[in-house]
Amino acid sequence: MNVKSIRWFFLSWLLLTSVCGATNDWERFPIPQRTELWWVTQGSVHNGYKLFIKQFKSQLSVDEVLEYYRDAWKSDSELPGFMESDVRGWQMISRLTLRDQWVVQVKSDATGRGSEGLISQMMLQPNEQPGRIAKQNFMPMPHGGVLVSSTHSENPTSARTQTQIFSGRPKSVADQYKKYAVDQGWSLQDEYVHGSSVAQRFERSKRKLDVALVESAYGKTLVFVSEVVNEIQ
């Protein structure tokens, strides 16, 4: 596994794909004219909450998109109907309801004339419907580990569970995980060590497991664990 593979592994955390039917919420959601959308993920479960994301490309400028949602979400009460922020070049506008949170993040496209971005919906009630496989990763929590996030997504033929953990030193955690995986019947397919970073890939039947560990500037280890199950029933 080379540096390019590790870079791809980290980027894969940003876009999770799964396919299922659109919800009535999205059919009613306001979309500006001259704007195209497509699904990024439908029904992923992030930290126990269901998450839906669409990507969009619009002929409207960033200011026109933001003005559209300011008008669509304006409130007649003393409470604001929306909030705005600027995060690393992205313009964000969000709306909170009693059951969900909607976020539109937008920036200029490559031409400088139009815009592009993401629209997300996170349900505020924890997801209580069990999936076809366990939502938690099989790996044990390292000693002193702290769960950062956990995301589960499914499509008709596969499922993915991705977990991020803060823990101790990379090498000791990597050795612990490798021993545990082998004891559980997983086969180590590849291992890459670069400085204090470690990447491992395991396989077992129709399952694949990627583990990547990077030491942070604070002396802690950020652990990425991704388990994929193919041909789920």
Rg of Cα set: 20 Å
The CATH topology label of the largest domain is TATA-Binding Protein
The multimeric state of the shown protein is single chain
Number of domains: 2
Name the overall outline. elongated
Instruction: Summarize the helix and strand pattern as letters.
Output: HHEEHEEEEEEHEEEE
For the record, the CATH architecture of the largest domain stands as: 2-Layer Sandwich
Distance between the termini: 30 Å
Largest sheet: 12 strands, antiparallel
Mean of residue pLDDT?
A: 76
Helical amount = 10-25%
Count all strands and give the number.
12
Name of the top-level CATH class of the largest domain: Alpha Beta
Give the neighbour order of strands across the main sheet. 3-4-5-6-2-1-7-8-12-11-10-9
Q: How would you describe this structure to a colleague?
A:
By secondary structure, the protein is an alpha+beta fold. The protein has two domains: 31-123, no CATH class; 130-230, TATA-Binding Protein, CATH 3.30.310. It is 17% helix and 45% strand. A twelve-stranded antiparallel beta sheet has the order 3-4-5-6-2-1-7-8-12-11-10-9, sandwiched between helices.
Please outline what is shown here.
This protein is of the alpha+beta class and 233 residues long.
Question: Tags for this entry?
Answer:
alpha+beta, TATA-Binding Protein, 17% helix
Task: Indicate the topology.
Blueprint: H1 3-11, H2 24-28, E1 35-46, E2 49-58, H3 62-72, E3 83-87, E4 90-96, E5 100-108, E6 115-123, E7 146-154, E8 158-167, H4 170-183, E9 187-194, E10 197-204, E11 207-215, E12 221-230
Antiparallel strand pairs: 1-2, 1-7, 2-6, 3-4, 4-5, 5-6, 7-8, 8-12, 9-10, 10-11, 11-12
